[in-house]
Design brief:
By secondary structure, the protein is α+β, with helices and mostly antiparallel strands. The protein has six helices and three strands, in the order βββαααααα.
């Protein structure tokens, strides 16, 4: 547990004074996230909540991309697969995109685009088979291809591809 100073306006617990306008409280996470209460408490919890269980007003909406050409879609997916936010997911998705995007059909590209709307760590855990995907991705051939890529049975040394 960490101890930190919090302004009194945010605390409702009586505790020791730190400064005249702050108080000490104990907190397990110094930077709680808005969706933290919806996540499982254990790392290996198999009852991972589906994003559909999270209130819809808390989930970001995907941008509509009307009249996007296949070439533009492919170029956007190459960039988005590399610039996700977590290195682990970036490495898996960007190397997968480099090897597979050119040969994908338009429907496969759109499915990959929908997968990219999922949170990084969910994609990572589904690919590494640490957690089961939600029903909407359970039988996806794209996710199965991504899992095969993640297993790296050829023991290929992978690095971030150039943009």
């Amino acid at each position: 547990m960490l101890r930190r100073c919090i302004p009194k306006a945010f605390t409702f617990l009586p505790s020791r004074r730190c400064l005249s306008s702050t108080t000490f409280i104990k907190s397990a996470d110094p930077y709680p996230l808005p969706l933290q209460s919806f996540r499982p408490s254990k790392q290996n919890d198999s009852s991972v909540l589906d994003n559909q269980d999270i209130p819809s007003h808390l989930m970001p909406k995907p941008l509509p991309r009307n009249n996007e050409t296949v070439d533009t879609l492919r170029a956007r997916l190459v960039y988005q697969s590399r610039k996700r936010g977590t290195l682990e997911t970036d490495l898996l998705l960007s190397t997968f995109a480099k090897e597979n995007l050119e040969s994908m059909t338009e429907s496969e590209l759109k499915e990959f685009d929908k997968l990219m709307d999922e949170p990084d760590w969910d994609i990572y855990y589904w690919c590494t088979e640490k957690r089961d995907p939600p029903p909407r991705w359970a039988n996806s051939p794209l996710l199965e291809k991504l899992r095969v890529h993640t297993r790296n049975e050829g023991k290929v040394v992978r690095k971030m591809p150039d943009l």
